[in-house]
Amino acid sequence: MTTFAAIADQLDDQVIELPSWAFGNSGTRFKVFGTPGTPRTVQEKLADAAKVNELTGLAPKVALHIPWDKVEDYAALKAYAADLGLNLGTINSNTFQDDIYKFGSLTHVDESVRRKAIDRHFECIEVMNQTGSRDLKIWLADGTNYAGQGDLRGRQDRLADSLAQVYDRIGRDQRLVLEYKFFEPAFYHMDVPDWGTAYAHVAALGERAVVCLDTGHHAPGTNIEFIVTQLLRLGKLGSFDFNSRFYADDDLIVGSADPFQLFRILFEVVRGGGYGPDSDVAFMLDQCHNVEDKIPGQIRSVLNVQEMTARALLVDREALAKAQEAGDVLGAHGVLMEAFYTDVRSDLAGWRESRGLPRDPMGAYAESGYQAKINAERVGGQQAGWGA
Ligand code: PSV
Ligand code: MN
To answer: What is the pTM of this model?
Structure first.
């Protein structure tokens, strides 16, 4: 089997983008809990993200959601982030919280509403130009709840036209990243429910349009790693939104309940050329922390991704190929499982130490006093959260 020493340097290439909204309050439709120390501003969200990066060395980028993270001066925000050792990453458009979007946004039958949704994306592109962001990520809440409520075909045609207008506006070095989700908030149909629909749209747009795979957006039992393989094969895997899903879009900590699934996904990423300096695939988290502490929640998440990446890199690909070609079913399966069952935790602690990072980032955070400090300092004002 490949040794940890042989793959250690490859781990230096890993960048995991943090979602600004992970540091704000969140919840379910039943309750959004407030938490001491929650950021009131995007600057405070960035400070928390910087802490995650300081302790793990894995997360030097932060994705923003517009309008949740709207500011007057994005160049100043970029400079503020740079001072914290961060870059501003993906810009997420939000056309799902204004009343006008009740029946859709880029698919809307009313041209004036559709125009506003397209303009919102133009505004996001303006933000990207100032933040230096590469990716515009589009997730749409568009869909219907009842058979016959909308004209499914008309909505697809309008979506294609809207996306083409947005795509025309993005710069040469920018990408349009289309995210799919098979349910919620609409339940009869979603306009971009699956990777195939997302692929059909981005393929029609052109080279700089790619797909975002949110690991929480599939039906139970879906073989997500197969989708990874297919999108990489087609050159259309743009990014991941990592999280862990149970019954709905829970956005729980990636790799928390099913590390094996995360391993299988990351193995296909590595196998398909989606990992390393030559790959454009962005690794992002899309999570919220409803009941657990937010900053350690993000630390745990990036460590989980790193741990399963290490195990995926450990797979003896030569031995695997040999067993596969020989029709050695259990031999091939065994090669994969051998890497999965390899405990890399102490090797990773050594990897961190050799790079000037704490061996145990979770413990280091608990001892840092940062949480007590922000709990004491961040009093008053409006805590960030959904819609805030
Ligand atoms: C939608 O469920 C989604 O996954 C999209 O990526 C949104 O931008 C994000 O969640 C908001 O939390
Ligand atoms: Mn997502």
So the answer is: 0.97
